[in-house]
Amino acid sequence: MDDALRAVADPTRRAIMELVRDGERSAGELAGHFPAMSRPAVSQHLKVLVEAGLVDVRRDGNRRLYALRPEGLADAAGFIERMWSVQLRRLKEAVEKE
Description:
single chain, alpha+beta, Arc Repressor Mutant, subunit A, 3-stranded antiparallel sheet, 3 strands, 61% helix, transcription regulation, DNA-binding, ArsR family transcriptional regulator, WH_DNA-bd_sf
């Protein structure tokens, strides 16, 4: 979970995740969405996402195709849900006391 949260803390990596959310995209296609960034920099972001388990990569000839792994965020989402539900319960209790 820590790696996933660190990975999504970066706005570029969140943008990449949105780009691969609906299907595979090649590294070159992804890099094209970030013209101010070098391809090696985009590749480094992709590496972080893969290592965090948020994105899958597969080879297709000489290309690498990236796709979102929604289950990669499951632990982080569960943690956030638990924290949010505690706060909502406390708010409900406070309102009901008044």
